[in-house]
Amino acid sequence: MQENCLRKLHIAVRNRSAPCGLVRRRVGQERDDHDAHDMRSETMILRAGVVPTSDFPTRTRILTTSTYGPHQPPQRTDFVALSAGFVHCAGIIGGGTAVAWGDETKWEDKIEMFDVECWTELAAIAVGEYHTVGLRTDGTVVACGSSEYGECDVEAWRDVVGIGAGFWYTVAVRADGTVVACGSIKNERKAVAFWRSIVAVDAGDDHTVGLRSDGTVVACGTNEHGQCDVDDWHSIVAIAAGEYHTAGLRADGTVVACGLNEAGQCAVGGWRDIIAIDAGDYHTVGLRRDGTVVACGLGDYGACDVGGWSDVCAIAAGGDCTLALVRAQ
Predict the structure, then answer these.
(1) pTM for the whole thing?
(2) pLDDT tens profile 14-38
(3) Is residue 264 part of a domain?
């Protein structure tokens, strides 16, 4: 079954030399201090569910490796940002309004995670295990769904420029480079309160990863499989956290990874000319400059069956599937 299909999804948009065009940063996109490290000073990496600001196709469609019915995306051509979780997905359509979909019948006790239809003026959206988070263009944050551990307690957050949703918790980057979090913040993850000069964050199953403005990486949380062993990483321009592994995109277009590798999800050493990465539960995905996609790791449900994709603008790695955003004809 593919109920676990879209546990966590991130999108990253490619540069002007690619078919779908260049996008710029603003609220909802982490601070761009690290752009100088970018592989050709022209590639812009977007975080999960971030609305592009320019040069994005007016009509897009979504490719997916999933065959699980409730996780099939709506047949729309106006999505500009996407995010997904364990049982539901969410996106932003033109105008900054939100849409959510998924297996509502099976998870009726957590139906609130779909209640995003009133959200407007969004710059970013992120989906956690059973909750949804939205970042407004004014730097405030909204959330809905299960808040058993306080993962939706975001009302007081201000000056936020990037958001992420993990397993029962929410993290965000402020404009000053500090990080705030709420929800199931175990002792190992409390260290995010002391992080500084952060330009991007990502959340795995039980670990959090941060990218500093100097291209180095910091991580905290459970390190049972070595998923937090990032101290020697440098020249990193983007990060992605899977369930028990972490991936980083270097400025030269190569990729590094650490953590659980039993399914080959860290076998990224041969990748070249990569401009965006994402990590699913047990697989890793990379977007090449020419618009093609590469993937490694667990492919039991076809998550790595991306060899025929082309003209891709964005990639997304879910729990055990992969999605891509392409220009609609």
Answers:
(1) 0.84
(2) 332 333 433 334 444 555 444 444 4
(3) yes
